[in-house]
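re the bet — no i am not wrong, look at it urself. input seq straight from the record:
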Amino acid sequence: MVYENKQNWPEKFDINKLVSIKESIDKLIRGEKVSERRNDRYADVGDEVLLEGHLFEVVDVYPEQLKNLTNQEAKDEGFENLEEYRNILKNIHHGEVWDPELFVWAHYLREK
């Protein structure tokens, strides 16, 4: 699966389902989180989403493989480091293996 050309990107899902966990919404509102990575694409740059009365704009979207995630990107997700992020994801997905080859979609948001 290669996404070098945006024209090959899959259709996007409903942006209102991009950030669905209360703790993640709270972290975004407090400025402790600036990105949300998902298995699917939920937005394009410029799309907006209203979260608990706060309007956020998507400022960047791109695909990346889990093996390329950095500690900084884990911090962007609102975690202390990559290990904490990996452990939380394994817990959320009920022990599924962290597949380094898996592509995820990084969505960066900024409050308007």
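see?? The mean pLDDT is 92. told u. also The two ends are 33 Å apart (CA to CA). so pay up
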